[in-house]
């Protein structure tokens, strides 16, 4: 039986169904080889020779494939149809070559969807490995390695606390930092608008906005003050108004094209709240199960048979009036669009989301989005009538305008409309019947104050959109880039917005100061273009590497003599307008506001944080974050007394903390605990301070071995600990309330090599009224019901099989009331574990990662 190799066991299982017993289908579990995380794995002196190593966890998978080849030497490489998939096939062939018999047949097959027809057709048309695609992968991998292993050590030596830098990751970070600087430099500008509530002679009311004042057409900032607005109100109030014209024009809206990777990530963020990583993870599982086509693509065209299937589904579900006379065609705009992949679409257009055989909520929601967008892309346009009514005074001194819209035919909007990142100023209100020449009676005239708004912070959706516009990164890299800058604590996400941390700002300014070319948008985009040229066979990859390395080494040499103090001074100077803005009283912005003797300057902490401190330290301990020039001066606050010790809230060079007692000769370092990120200082009272000082908190002996289980807050956030094993908790507050059942569950589901080993529920009872599944689980202390982060133990007289949803809801409500917490609708305990796993890798290993 020929041996077919794919990346994942899920994909192997689906393909095995289609191929049957005539083939042996095995999984490689991703890449089997990588560059060892040590210097010298890419050797520029040997024309960029690359030393590959089979990963320890991959050896058993390679052995399984090698053993299967012993009985049938024919090898079919069926990995994904992109550069990464081509690279995996190349690595497999290179690794298995010694085990292949002489004359063994090796072929490469690709399919854009894991369906029986697509797989069967691909098997009938095998090819050889596409070397230009492999060369493009080798070039990207070498570039990322060379940047990581040469630029990161410069950061470590010259900027204390900084982590590694990446070729594309650093540019993505710059985009976020640049936007934050724009926001902080923004000064709002006041302006006013005037609106009138008018009525027709028949008594029907409508709204209109003032567009002419004093005979002059109004621009946005023409009414700048309240006084001018009141004059405008008086001008309208003192005049009779008539309808000067009524213009009704037909309009139409065409549907959006089907999804490609970037637009799928943007919509998943807007509509489902899914980050890029979660979106791609759900899409990967849908693809491997055969429900959607390949999800890493720049393409928006659709296979002809898929177009016809979509049209059949539209006609059957919505009627012939929703079907355009001819199919809609969408053309790829991207150069070398991921080697001309198809769009992301359902493999079966008739499989509606309500019939999808999947229980995972994210997968179901994402499939619903893909299915609707695909059908909508082939539907009839929406038709509407837009009406513009001009109202004016007889002397022409005052003019107003009313806009309205009537939907004549909803077309594709019946199924789907794209989400928006920001509100659009489109007036879609309906207007009553209004005739030209009739009077417009004034019911109310009101002025409205406005201020210009700073540009919004990036969400994951808008960052992907911006990177796509700039030509930075590719579909397969967006999720890892965004994930990496968050994992390294360069950026944090709050309310779905990406906010740069202080260390992220410092790294960006450092790179802009000393390596400006390598965080340049144009340079990075041009390099991506060169990689595309390699994949299409138009460039030799070593040529690109030679030119890059020559210039890059020159830039590295320019920083060899730099001292840390020089770097801090340069960054301090570059950030001066932001760090030390003019004060309202005209005093020196750098004068310390606490002691009035020292001067403020930039300092870095060993932890990588940055802050503004006083040169009069340690006599003066004033500090403030670099992102808060107007921060209130913070001194020490006594919260209360416990067991004779004074409990204080203090502000140190590493941020605010609580302390028990004061430093003495006998105890120079009294017990302290940092205030966790996200806690409002005003909420820190004696009770919370004592809870922090009491950490780590012992939960109890582990039921398996009796070793104590503890909860605490560490360098990487809140955690539970059993012996030498740590597992992250999603929220700080859970440290103080977590019980043994929950702790054992978190420890058991800690991710091992990126794959969770969570226990399966005993029963699925249904959905909680506030969202999320309610399950019966088997716990170390007996069975319990689970909803989100609430675990409620079953009474002894209640068997797991007898639990109803109603009874489970009662138990959950009782437990939630006792613990005083309400869980999120969607549990997110796994993500911090992923973050911790990444954070605990050796620094050298992290340095090799690409943006």
* Unreliable segments of 5+ consecutive residues: 751-757, 823-851
Number of helices: 23
What's the number of extended β-strand segments? 32
Q: Percent of residues in beta strands? A: 15-25%
Q: What is the makeup of the main sheet?
A: 6 strands, antiparallel, barrel
Distance between the termini: 41 Å
Using only C-alpha atoms, the radius of gyration works out to 32 Å
Major sheet: arrangement of strands? 9-10-14-13-12-15
Structural class: alpha+beta
Mean pLDDT figure? 86
- Any idea what the shape is? globular
Catalytic activity: ATP-independent breakage of single-stranded DNA, followed by passage and rejoining
Active site: 294 (o-(5'-phospho-dna)-tyrosine intermediate)
Protein name: DNA topoisomerase 1
Organism: Paracoccus versutus
